[in-house]
Amino acid sequence: MRYAVLAVAMGVAGIAQAQVRTETRTPTAAEQQSFEQFYRQAAPGAVPPPLHASRQRGARQWTLSAVVDSAPARDVLPLCRLARTRYTQAGGEWRSSSEQHVWVHHAPQCGPVPAHMLELRAPLAGIDILKLVQAEKVLLQRARLLMTGNTSCAPTRSRAFQLRVLDKTKQGLFLLGFESDIGTRVDVSVRQSRAELTAWNVSCY
Q1: How do residues 136-185 score in pLDDT, each as one tens digit?
Q2: Of 86, 91, 101, 120, whose CB has the highest number of CB atoms within 10 Å?
Q3: What b/e string do you get for 179-194 counting C-beta neighbours within 10 Å, with b at 16 or more?
Q4: What residues contact residue 41 under an 8 Å CB cut-off, 6+ apart?
Q5: Summary mean pLDDT of the chain
Q6: pTM exceeds 0.90, yes or no
Q7: Which helix (H) or strand (E) holds 58?
Q8: Is 48 helix (H, G, I), strand (E, B) or coil?
Q9: Same domain for 73 and 126?
């Protein structure tokens, strides 16, 4: 239950933040037709998903995007997982990419896809994902201390952060990717020593 409440709270906060930073509009008929032609080639016989147009506030160029999710599947309890195919157009060319997303859900069935999920960018074991999620708050607090001595991180160390990404560094350390309430990003590398997880280094963008 604790994780379910956390997921809902994180989702609501993330939606509110995104609305502040992002502008949206209805795709034009020409844009919709362009996407449908591309999608029919990529997935013959499938119904095209809704198309969206968005841009960062103040930016000039609009990005067109659509997503198709696989059916949620149960991973190691209480994790759920799905594959997401993302279609985007920027600069006139359509592209597709595949992503893996996970979230915590304690009910027997995974149920509807939540507003906030964690993007999984490395093949992490389910038990490792759970450990990182459980230690998120402690690791973030330690990361704030590391930000103090980093000139690129110091201005945002007191901001509110939301966990977005789970990954691994080139050195094999776990990596937690956070996004702040003003759109900046912080990557926190995490070292594991037996059962202990320690925030090891930070990079800010």
Answers
A1: 999 999 999 999 989 999 999 999 999 999 999 999 999 999 999 998 99
A2: 101
A3: bbbebbebbbbbeeee
A4: none
A5: 90
A6: no
A7: none
A8: coil
A9: no
